[in-house]
Amino acid sequence: MGDTERFGRLLLDQLEWLHDGSSDAGAWEAEGWYGGDRDRLWIRTEGERSGGETRNARGELLGDRSIGPWWSLQAGLREDFGNGPARTWAAFGIEGLAPYWLEIEATFYVGEGGRTAARLRGEYDLLLTQRLVLEPQAELNVYGKPDPARRVDSGLAQTELGLRLRYEIRREIAPYLGVAWMREAGVTPIIGSIATRSSVASQAQLVAGVRAWF
């Protein structure tokens, strides 16, 4: 057909409430694309709000080029907001289906001031019944240098593991319950000094939300 037909989709992958035993937060993760079978434009966003403040939030605008039936290359821009000053990155990555239908995203980022970062994400849908789906998920974020203004340390700065069980009322909408574990390595400037102080925090959370696509 010459890849002339254009179509799109919007996926609200996670719109959820989180509770870690002492505080509540809200989080979102969404993506959408428009284009043909070979070339598409992707938009992604994710983040968290707690205590009336947005933190750990980002948005990405990517061009996507298919390199086979299961994989595509992506390039574009990422913008970080919340938790300090905004950061802009150039993004280069690959996305697709690994054996056993494991969904993989691997993206490398280059930012201002010689900053570099990498993000690796994987998830899998395990069908327990035709409507009940168990989704394990893992995400790793690595940074080449510390960013005290955003409280991000170098190395493996963020790790997230999740397990969500959703019930598909229809294919387009599914409420879910689950658990998530997060580890963050941060660095903050010491007041009155150019030195910094590193810290590592981890927490387990209960999550409840909804997944929908249009």
Architecture overview:
The chain is mainly β. The chain has a single domain (7-213), classed as Porin (Beta Barrel). The protein contains no helices and 13 strands. The protein has strands at residues 7-19, 24-35, 39-50, 53-66, 71-81, 87-98, 102-111, 116-123, 126-127, 132-143, 155-167, 173-189, 196-213. It has a twelve-stranded antiparallel beta barrel with strand order 1-2-3-4-5-6-7-8-10-11-12-13. The protein is globular, with a radius of gyration of 18 Å. The two termini are 24 Å apart. The mean pLDDT is 92.
Oligomer kind: single chain
The level of helicity is under 10%
Q: pLDDT average, as an integer?
A: 92
CATH superfamily: monomeric porin ompg
Main beta sheet: 12 strands, antiparallel, barrel
- List low-pLDDT spans: none
Question: What is the β-strand count?
Answer: 13
What is the succession of H and E elements? Answer: EEEEEEEEEEEEE
